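User: Need the bound-state model for PMT:
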Amino acid sequence: MPGIPVILGVGGGIAAYKSAELARALMEQGGEVQTVMTHAAQEFIRPLTFAALTGHKVITEMFSNASSEDVLSSSVEHIRVAQENRLLVVAPATADLLARFAQGLANDFLTTLYLAFQGPVLLCPAMNTAMWEHPATVRNLEILRERGHNILAPDDGRLACGTVGPGRLPEPARIASIAMGILRQRHDFDNETVLVTAGPTREPMDPVRFISNRSSGKMGYALAEAAMSRGARVILISGPVHLSAPEGVELIQVQTAHEMHHAVISRLDEASIIIKSAAVADYYVANVPAQKVKKTPMRLSLDLEPTPDILAEIGRRKGDQLLIGFAAETENLLQEARRKLQSKNCDMIVANLVSQDGVGFESEENEVLLVQRTGETLHLDKAPKRVIAGQVLDQALILRLALHKVEN
Ligand code: PMT
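Assistant: Bound-state model below.
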C-alpha cells in the first residue's frame, strides 16, 4: 500500500543530519517522503542520503539545466509537488527559511513550493538560542503561527555552537508522530479545556538548597501536547523542568507545592478535564532559615510539614469535571491506585510502578494501569510517553461518556 505523501523540506543548519533519521521515521509511521533540500542544506548532508533512504529523487534545484524539455517540466514541478503531497514538514527550519516563508519570498524550490502548497505545514525551527530569541525570528514565527501553521518549538539543551538553551531540533521520532498526527488530526477535544500538572516541585531548605524528586515532566508535557493537538485549550502548570512547553499551550511555571496548589485552584473552574501528573512533594520544610545553613559536625534534622493535597482538594470541589490523578508506586500498585481513586474522588488513576527499569520517572517510556471509577482497569503496555498520553486521553473521553450514562 502506498504511504501518505509528505514533503520533507530540509534547511541548512547543523541539525540537517537529523533529517535523514526523520525521513526514515516518517516512512516508519506511514509516510511516502519527497525530500526537498535548500542549497545550504546540501553543505551539511548529501541529497544521496535521502534518495537512498526514501527511494525518491531529491529536489535540490528550481530549474534543471539539462534539456529544454527538462526546463519546461521543472518550471512547473513545484506545482506538481505541491498538489501531490498532503503535508509539508520543514526540519530544520532555519531563521533564514522562517524569514523567507513569513515574507513570501520565492527564491528557491522550497520557498516557491511553500507558496504553492495548500495543505497543512509543520515547521520545526532549530538554530542558535540568540537567533531563536531575536525579535526578527519571534516576529516571523508570529506571522507563520497566525497563518495557521504548526510550529514545533525546539528543545532545550547544549547546541552545536556550545550554547545551552532552546534551539535543538526535537527527536525525529517525535517530529514524525506529530506530523502524522496532523494528517490524522482528530478534533475530539475541540470543546475541552484541559488543565495538566507536570514535573516535580522544589521545597526550599534554605536559600540555596531544596528537596525535590526525579520527575522530568516528560509524561505531563506529552499529555499537554496530545490534548493540544486534538483541539483542546490547554493550561499546563509545571514545576521546574528542562522542557519547552508545546506551542499554543498556556504555561504557568511554579516551584513549590504551595505555588502549584495556588495556581491549580485559581484556574480550576476553567477546566473540563484535570490531569494531575505532577510529582508534588508531600512535605515541605517548616521555618526555612533566611540564611544558608552552615555545615557543622552535628546531626541536622529537618522539621517537615505536610503540603496541601491538591488532588484531594480538587476531588472535594469538583462538579462534573473529569479528574484524572496519577499514582507513583514501588509496590502494591493496583491496591494503592484503588485507594487513591476512592479517597481523592478521582474518575481515573493512572498508576505507574516507578521501581521498574525504563518506565516512570525520567524515562522516555511508561507502562501504566488505568484504574477507573466505573470499576474497569486497563493495562497499557510499555510505550513512549506520547503514545501513553494519547491512550489516556482516549480513555478519558470513553470514561466521560460512561459516567454520563450512569448519572442520567
Ligand atoms: O515526569 P516524568 O519523569 O515523565 O515521570 C512521570 C511520573 C512518574 C512523575 C508520573 O507518571 C507520575 O506518576 N506522577 C505522579 C507522581 C506522584 O506524585 O504520585 P503520588 O502517588 O505521590 O501522588 C498521587 C497523586 O496526588 C498525583 O496525581 C499527584 O499529582 C497528587 N498529589 C500528590 C501530593 C500532593 N501534595 N498533591 C497532589 O495533588
